[in-house]
């Protein structure tokens, strides 16, 4: 278990409020506020629900993909953040993340990412998604279901993401369509 200092909690909440990742204070309910045991050794977040910062963050992340601007996607990651997709080599740092997003956006110029759910599991945030698009070379439509397991850093950004989807189904749809 982790001990959380008040300065980390204050900085995290300040960042979330500044970037509208958290409802305004006058709109908050007790479910919106993380619970912290300052005198103990544990820090826990409330369960991820429609009103939490994680859900807003995940919806905004999907919107970044839908903007077709790779830099917006990379902006959700810490400057030294990583994503590893299907046990491949990790994409590291802002340049690597822009490269990764650019590749998907070039392959699927009409890519659309939809949040299919979000949960908190073992201290990580799991973002479930569906992506649809038309492959730029084959012209075939795809609909792929997957997830990313995020480790959120103290700065409130994704420090590490582990992405998963069915690669065989992906290849089948790219070559033959839905």
Q: Which secondary structure elements does this structure contain, and how are they paired or packed?
A:
Layout: H1 6-18, E1 35-36, E2 43-44, H2 53-66, H3 70-74, E3 77-85, E4 91-92, H4 93-107, E5 112-121, E6 124-134, E7 141-152, E8 158-165, H5 167-176
Parallel strand pairs: 3-8
Antiparallel strand pairs: 1-2, 3-4, 5-6, 6-7, 7-8
Give the overall pLDDT as a whole number.
78
Q: Classify the fold: give the CATH topology.
A: Nuclear Transport Factor 2, Chain: A
Structural class: alpha+beta
Instruction: Report the radius of gyration as a whole number of Å.
Output: 17 Å
Describe the sheet with the most strands.
Answer: 6 strands, mixed
CATH uppermost class: Alpha Beta
Q: Which word captures the global form?
A: globular
Strand order of the largest sheet: 4-3-8-7-6-5
For the termini, the CA-CA separation is 45 Å
Strand content: 25-35%
What is the overall number of helices? 5
Helix content, binned percent: 25-40%
Name the poorly predicted regions.
1-51
**From the coordinates shown, what is the CATH architecture?**
Roll
